[in-house]
């Protein structure tokens, strides 16, 4: 199965290019950050998902996060939470979808952490607690996809990688850089996977460079996963 994460920058750039990039991912599950959250936000998310052959599985307006899934994926449960609000900072949220694909259950969270280090640390821990609760309830493997807004040597990233596996760190494909799309020099977007999944490969997507640059300011991360022992 293929799980991906992508910050789509509120569809402020070329939507046709964005659709082509998402289609090229061939993702079974896609974690979206900066999904539309203002006027007609539900319809705009649905339109984006459907244009790429997906459907919306989870996500509320506040926080701008969502989970899209492919037609073959069964959605068992969905929830959305607003994370602790910090005065003067953006409202952050986590979207969680419990899904079944190829006989494997995943609890997948889409997360967009703040630019403020303290908020990032608090929200990472809060989201992990919510995800682990959903995963335990449904007997699913936890997975987080998100824009972490820091690199792998920073506290929130280290916390997430300490509870789950940094997919790219386990099976890297390419240089892993995700920001900016035009001049990628930082790895701030990631997928973290729980025990019970083997990471066969994790990296970018084989899409046209002009589409990657035109679609948004981040590059996507895509992981090929398999149930351990399958």
Automatic annotation (TrEMBL):
UniProt entry keywords in alphabetical sequence: Endonuclease, Hydrolase, Nuclease
Keyword Transferase in record: no
Source organism superkingdom: Bacteria
Single Gene Ontology MF annotation: endonuclease activity
UniProt xrefs under SUPFAM superfamilies: DNase I-like
Residue ranges annotated for the Endonuclease/exonuclease/phosphatase domain, each copy included: 4-218
Any matching Pfam family: Exo_endo_phos
InterPro entries assigned: Endo/exonu/phosph_ase_sf, Endo/exonuclease/phosphatase
Stated name of the protein: Endonuclease/exonuclease/phosphatase family protein
Organism field: Nonomuraea typhae
